[in-house]
Amino acid sequence: MNEERFAIEYARGKFKLKRWGKEKIKYALKQKRISDYCIRKALALISASEYNKTFSSIANKKLATLKSEKNIFIKKKKMQHYLQQKGFEIKMINDYLKAL
Predict the structure, then answer these.
(1) Residues whose CB falls within 8 Å of the CB of residue 82, separated by 6 or more in sequence, listed in order
(2) For residue range 58-99, what is the model confidence (pLDDT) as tens digits?
(3) What is the pTM of this model?
(4) HEC secondary structure over 41-98
C-alpha cells in the first residue's frame, strides 16, 4: 500500500469511526512517519461541514454530561480539555466556549 493512500484511509477511518479531530490525526500520522505532504492531503479530504457537524455533536454531548457542574469556569476547562484530547483545534474550541 502506498503512503498517500494509507494516510487518506487512516484519516478517514479515525475521523468517521473514532471521531478524532484533525490535530490528533495529524500527530498520529507523524508518529507513523508519514510525510507532511500526505498528511496535508489526507486532512484536506475531510469535508468542513462534516467536520463542524462532528465537532458540534461531540461538544454538545459533553456539555450535557456537565449539567451538574455549577462553576462555569470549571465547566469550560473540562470542555476545553476534553475537546483538545479528541484532537480539535484550539481556535475552534475557544469559539465554541465563548458562545456558552
Answers:
(1) 62
(2) 999 999 999 998 999 999 999 999 999 999 999 999 999 998
(3) 0.89
(4) HHHHCCCHHHHHHHHHHHHHHHHHHCCCCCCHHHHHHHHHHHHHHCCCCHHHHHHHHH
